[in-house]
Every structure is written in structure tokens, then in C-alpha cells.
Amino acid sequence: MFKHVPNLANVLHPHKFRVFKGNKLRAAIDDEYENSNSPMKKDGDMQDTLTMWGGWSTTSSMPKRYTNAHIQRKLNDYLAKKDS
Question: Could you tell me the superkingdom of the organism this chain comes from (predicted)?
Fold first, then answer.
């Protein structure tokens, strides 16, 4: 596809789809356990789900990266609302 429309190479890339889906999946896990009083279950499900979805090994740091990015987005949203 990029050979036919070279300008898309700077806009669309398979990695962007992966990151977008990973971020959505991480947020969905957070939403599912929003009122849960079991953070260990949430963390275990998050690790398992992201590891399986991403095809990473169980020792991969990638799920943690998605979690850190998710927390950063939530913090930025909170601070933006507080400043308004």
C-alpha cells in the first residue's frame, strides 16, 4: 500500500495500529476493574491479557510500558481538568 501512496508511510504504520489497540486494551482492563477492591487480580489480568495479546514473553517489560503510558494519560487528563 505504501508503494502506491508514499505519503501514507509517514501517517500510517502497522506499529501505530498495535500501539493504539494496546492502549485501548489497557484502558478497557482499567475500566473493567474500576470498582474492584482487588488490585492484584486486576494487575494479574492486565499482565496476562497484554502479554498474550502482544505475543510477548512472560518476562517482557512491554505490558509495563503500556501501563505507564496509560497512567501518564490519566494523570495528564486529570491535570488538564484541574487547570480549567
Answer: Bacteria
- Judge contact between 29 and 48, C-beta under 8 A: no
- Report the alpha-carbon distance of residue 84 to residue 81 in Å, rounded: 5
**d(C-alpha 25, C-alpha 77), whole Å:** 18
What tens digit of pLDDT does each residue of 17-63 get? 888 888 888 888 777 777 776 666 667 777 888 888 888 898 888 88
For residue 16, the number of C-alpha atoms closer than 13 Å in the C-beta half-sphere is 6
Phi, psi of 31, deg, nearest 5: -65, -40
